């Protein structure tokens, strides 16, 4: 008879040599014998069945209380008279003390109190209710919404689920817009770190002017000239404002705040106003909100660049606030500046 070692047989059976040795010790391999420290196994021995696992069914033992009694199957839960303490709930259902107290506070659960100790006592019905609450919670329902479902007795589950699906889809759209804004702001900050105070030639996209007013501090104009054109759930005020300043070689001439919106193309019909788009001298500036020298510095630097590169300006500069750093009682603003070129 041909024999193989435990290592050789382990490769054939695709198990560990330690498991082969265990089978040999347990007498599960007919004809296996030990020689010194090595197990020798008949080459044609069959691999023992591993009773630790079942690949085709769940092992369910017989319950003598059932035995054909069809109506008794649910009584195993409904007739469970066990009483559980709060610690049992924390440990076995994964709930925190604060969550359980909140559920009780809003009336989602109403556990009984022990007459002597006044400790909360939970029945299996309470446990079942907590698992049902968790079912809805994991599908986006808030505890208060779950309470409303309980009180309304609404049996039209499809309507409730459809409403939550719509809410979830809307939240996803909102988060996608926030993600886009975050990414755009991050790109600007990375660009600003490398390009601050440098001049380049860049195209200004087309912006439609919705309204104008005198200054950022003209708060009384905001309701009609800013908020009226905004989705307050989506848009922030700073990103929609642009300071437009007119100038010539002698200095600045006038200034207006413009409430703007990106446009795809100019509309000829009607009296619509747009920022001067196209080729511009572009730079990024940063200054705290109390720095009054930034405009003067920009003026001389821009004219120095224009003289060096033989360029002329159209006489207006647009200043966008692209990022704000909060520090103490002041802000540090990062401006993107476009000066249209002739």
Automatic annotation (TrEMBL):
InterPro entries membership: DNA-bd_dom_put_sf, MerR-type_HTH_dom, MerR_fam
Domain of life: Bacteria
Pfam families assigned: MerR_1 (PF13411)
Family annotation (CDD domains): HTH_MerR-like
Coiled coil, from the record: 158-185
PANTHER family for the chain: MERR-FAMILY TRANSCRIPTIONAL REGULATOR, REDOX-CYCLING DRUG-SENSING TRANSCRIPTIONAL ACTIVATOR SOXR
Transmembrane portions of the chain: none
Keywords: Coiled coil, DNA-binding, Repressor, Transcription, Transcription regulation
Source organism of the structure: Eisenbergiella tayi
Name of this protein: MerR family transcriptional regulator
Record carries keyword Methyltransferase: no
All copies of domain HTH merR-type, residue ranges: 93-152
